[in-house]
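Go through this pair.

…
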Amino acid sequence: MNWIYLIIAGLFEVVWATTMKLSHGFSKWDWAIATVIGMIASFFFLAKATRTLPLSLAYPIWTGIGAVGSIIMGVTLFGDKIPGITWVFIALLLISIIGIKMTTSA
């Protein structure tokens, strides 16, 4: 169950990063409130996951999910342009996240 909490925490990290962009520097209050709620939810689920998962595993996976998810949201929602070689490094990041999970006994 703690791995599920960690995935949920990572997804909420994507939510708050995306809504922060939509808040336009916290000038749009509805998106600003959504950002704060996303942050609270992300930290809440990360805290639940780290009750039993080692921090050395949970934190990099949490940030990796947030990073890859935020890149995907930036490209799909905001039209961010990512150079081709950058996609190689994004793939390596994703492979690293999966590798961390697969090589741990937690």
